[in-house]
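Journal club side-thread
Mid-discussion, someone asked how the predicted structure for our own chain would compare to the paper's figures. Pasting it here so we can look after the session.
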Amino acid sequence: MKKKFCLAVIFVFSVSVSKLSAQDDGDYKSGIGIRVGGGYYDLISASYKTFITSPGAIELNLGFRSYSIAHSWFNLSASASYQHHFPIGSVEGLKWFIGGGVTAYNTFSSYEDFKGFGLGIFPTGGVDYKFGNIPLNVTADFRPTISIIKPYTYYSSFYAGNAGASVRYTF
């Protein structure tokens, strides 16, 4: 598992480095960092975002969340979303976005009623800001998730509380 994760990180970094391009208007091509969110399936995620067109970006997250309510369990998740960006007024580097995505997650537990595979889809929206003088991007987003496959009965079919914030080093 650790070997596969390391290989995935190296692959994402390699793709990022091969697509480096200088931007004069405060935009960025790619960024890698961390996302902190409030979803069922992830609390902390590695975050990678890359623009595939001028307004369109793909964001990938690999995250986890642990619980210890009545029984301890651990979630591991992977999410992907498409985001279409629009400038906000005359503030250079500030954009809002809308889009959608999918998340797949697995819950690990020694208690049989709290484990299994889950799959969900989500619309997304938020704001994205790229600092002009340093290679840093911050994002705040909202991802209300609709569960298609629920790992166990604790999950509802709709979870509106999935909001997050990301900080990324930009390329």
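Post-session note: The chain has one helix and ten strands.
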